[in-house]
# Entry
Amino acid sequence: MLERVLAEGLIGPGTRVVVMLSGGRDSVCMLDLAARVVGSEEVTALHVNYGLRDDSDADERHCRALCESLGVALVVERPRRPEGPGNLQAWARDSRYAVAAGLAESPPATIVTGHTADDQVETILYRLASSPSRRALLGMRPHDGRLARPLLGFTREETTAYCEQRGLAWRDDASNAELTYARNRVRHGLLPELAKIHPAAAANVLRTAALLRDEAEVLDALVDAEVNGSEGSPRGTIALQRMQELSPALRRLVLQRLADRAAGRPVAGAARFAEQVTGLRRTGTAMLDLGAGVRAVVEGGVLRAELD
# Structure
């Protein structure tokens, strides 16, 4: 595994790394590999103790002992869950990534996770069922800004074998078996059924996603050509007349790109407003809400997206 991680080049000597460490086998594997690749002194592990399970403190103690044995610095965060209803998993994810982003700010570092090929398959199938968008089929990118996922090419079976070979202990999260969570139902219900249909079902999902990501690079280049200041418009905009001339598919992609850039994150569903945007008047100023705090603005015949 070490040689393959080095060959991928997502992390390497001279890189400072922040590892998201839950204590599970995948993150333990990633932490050990990171320490071997860049040197333990260049690695900071982040463990987030949400206090949501009876064994949360035991997980934290395990992570402390592991980091001490590897000579890796550890940061432990204990966020307080907000009161009231809400998506618990989304809050937990947002909390840990916000802390990781702060740790990776200065000096600059690459944030790495232990996501594996198994996680990739589960993510694609879950998004396909819940998100009607092209992004759902692309899965997680190996490299996404400051975030890297060096283990996406490895299975959970391989990370398990690596930990056993290296004598690394890990913690099993009992909540991963609870079928109240949609992701767990994908893992324990949908995937086994797909394997009954075809034994290579999971591998075929991964191959399809890889092909689509390659093709997405071609589409992204077309979108870049439209929003990078074409026809005298400022960078990050497009003339409304030009937008009207585009094919419906390219219109959607252009609007999605403008919205994502304005928000600094994916704006789910922005593309569905493409036809309404092209119908805005060219004279004066016209606006249309794209959702998630982003709006399309046409001013002087030029379209841009901005935060409300």
Remarks:
- The longest helix spans residues 201-227.
- Residues 198 and 204 are 9 Å apart (CA to CA).
- The chain is about 50% helix and 15% strand.
- The chain has a mean pLDDT of 92.
